[in-house]
Amino acid sequence: MAIESMHHEDRLFKPSEEISKNAHISSFDHYKALCKKANENYEEFWADLANELLIWNKPFTKILNEDNAPFYKWFEDGKLNASHNCLDRHLKTQPDKPALIFEADDGTNKVVTFRELYEQVCQLANGLKKLNLGTGERVIIYLPMTIEAVVAMQACARIGLTHSVVFGGFSAKSIQERIADAQAKLVITADFQFRGGKKIPLKTAVDEALAMGGCGCIEKVIVLKRSDDDIDLSPNDLLWQDMIKDQPKDCEPVFVGAEHPLFLLYTSGSTGKPKGVQHSTAGYLLHAMNTSRWTFDIHANDIYWCTADVGWITGHTYVAYGPLALGVTQVIFEGVPTYPDASRFWQIIEKHKISIFYTAPTAIRALIKASEVNPETDPKKYDLTSLRLLGTVGEPINPEAWMWYYSSVGRERCPIMDTFWQTETGGHVITPLPGAIALVPGSCTLPFPGIDIDVVDEAGKELKWGQGGLLVIKKPWPSMIRTIWGDPDRFKKSYFPEELGGKLYLAGDGAIRDDKNGYFTIMGRIDDVLNVSGHRLGTMEIESALVAHDLVAEAAVVGKPHDVKGESIVAFVVLKGSRPSADKAKNIILTLRDWVGKEIGPIAKPDEIRFGDNLPKTRSGKIMRRLLRSLAKGEAITSDISTLENPAILEQLSEKL
What we know:
30 strands, about 30% helix, globular
């Protein structure tokens, strides 16, 4: 059965002649020719790109190995090193070009050239070598969005360690879970991060995580000192500054197999336990570079800024790897878009003459509201003439926000790359290309060349354009997830379900193709994963945190549309005692929100908590989440509730406090 869509958008924005004439992909015919090449000789298409873009220590002779599908392998007999590809290639051609421009929360700046970045990476890598970690052993990185975060990732890659970055906003419990699952040997952290005028401790969260148990695998903790405060160091703690002291500024890269795990990145799943998404070295880096090149149309003189933190996949692919390997100058920013006020993004673009700007719809919607409240923060008050291309990432962007971004930020001359992809895909899979594809507000348009993507029904049957269904990718691609760390069965069940034949990659999103031009529009998640401010959060993870509190007997969490965050979190809670009165309920809500913030992180705090004597369940005991979604949205219940155990419960749960 197809999903219905009420979305109709007729506005069309064609590429300008000026953009097309200089673009890497310069016309729609050029785009179609690439797609045709990929369609006619799929493996050769990817092999040609791998030979063009990557520097191989040992060239590959095998392209795609499908023997153990869906555990696909690409370029498996080749050898290379990701850091060597990102840094060494620039030492002869542009060693003194700025690689990273760091914008601190307080507005101060620091610039490192490609040579300086290379030297910092080599010094840290040499320090790490002294710890006698073996190739492929895991390192947890819990750092703020600074130059050192990129250095740490690159240093791990340089000597064959597999990094796993944990977002600096996550709690001690989240760190502990990731350490235990990855069986990491090392944590790299800092004493503090500085965001929104606040000094936020990181080292204490690591200490708390290690004290929770299950972290006996950790041998050392490296601490980057960023303040004058004394640090409470244990015998297993080392200061970053001491580790790199007197270390050589060159470090031979460890060349690894193409399938060597470059990193694990944990993403929320619908079972409550975070999933360690495992990415390869060669295939991942290839797509990171090629999507950076074609989607953002990166050229040598660009100043590029992706606002994502390295704790998310966007900060991996489109900060730490893709743009760095292409040799473009990047801005990285530790602060928040609203400090000291909501003009901060526009000030940074003006100050550093940013030409390519990539951010999240959540930030755009928040800045629209801010500019209405305080006209002094309106982007039109700033000189944004350096901009030539805009992008969005993390969730679909609604047409109204798209139009504001296009007119107020891009001044109706900068194309918007509305990119669809996931942690699991490694890079863009549906996106416009600026010189080739006409734009439609709210649509991510067409598949990236080489990605065979479609919309199917629940049985895996291809649907006609104009019918909504499940988004799937029909052929393996180089940057795809290789497995879920330590859980291959969950990998197969989650992404290659037997119901779809076991060969289609299930993205987990609903989508529809326009019945005239085939453009894709993403319709939202099909599972119980929420998209809050561009961050994927599993409902089960939040439910587990709530139920872990002494007061709570049972909890169910759903999302409802939010005009800034995309989705907000609504929790329906059954307490161990009686249902609380209004005044008592308010105190319990504060307690539970703080509890979830401590267990998972502030991003996971429910925006709304409602109490009932029970949850709506079928007679077999299954929670009827569709009813909870309707209640959260304030919709009348018109669907069949004959299977509901206690219909009266719906009235209780519809009451907002």
